[in-house]
Amino acid sequence: MERETEVYRPEWEARNRPKKNPHRLTFLDAIRQFADSAPDPKAADTILNLEGAFTLEWKGRKVAWKGKEFLITLREHAGTLYMAGFNRQDIDKCRLVFSKLRDKGDCFEMISPADFPRQIATQNFSLSLLTGKRQIRVGDDLIDSWQVLRTLDIQNPSFGSIYNLTAAMWYQIETGTEYWRISDSDLTQQFLQDYVAKYKPIALPTIIKEPPAQATTNTVSNVMINK
Description:
The chain has 6 helices and 9 strands, in the order H-H-H-E-E-E-E-E-E-E-E-H-H-H-E. The chain is α+β, with helices and mostly antiparallel strands. The strands form 3 sheets. It has a 4-stranded antiparallel beta sheet. The chain has a 3-stranded antiparallel beta sheet with strand order 2-1-9, with no helix packed on it. The longest helix has 11 residues.
């Protein structure tokens, strides 16, 4: 399930009107630039401390979560819900955070990346979190990034990028390397091929832009995103 506008608007504007040469400006530089030039100090605080939250019914219980992460994965494996989120409280050290539903079934607890099921380490939320849009340009081609993520198209040149949080999840789960230390050069075609061959990650059957009353098997059937 996916909303089309997942990126905080001032952040997106900051990336599109940088003070420096845009060809030499990194994503983190753009965020920092906005925070430094924001006329209202609270606006800078907001962009660095966005919170996520959701509620859902799971096996007859109401489960609620609230945290400092953007939800990027919520999927079931072996009868348990697992979650992954993107945390950028420290803009220089953005992190992937992994969790699972506690045995009591009332809340989530953090787990080691190595304990996250490899088969379900795929984004089904916030697909455009770091790009700001669904259609991205790679060379002369305009690529549907959602379709690339949905089908786990590792042959697509856009897949092996740190802006693709699915590929970054795979690398952290396998190597223990924190997101902020991962570079595009780590996400080689060989690494991606080996991961898929070894773990056979489960692609999504479809993508829904808004969570309807009756969702499909993308994730769980009744997640409500709290805005």
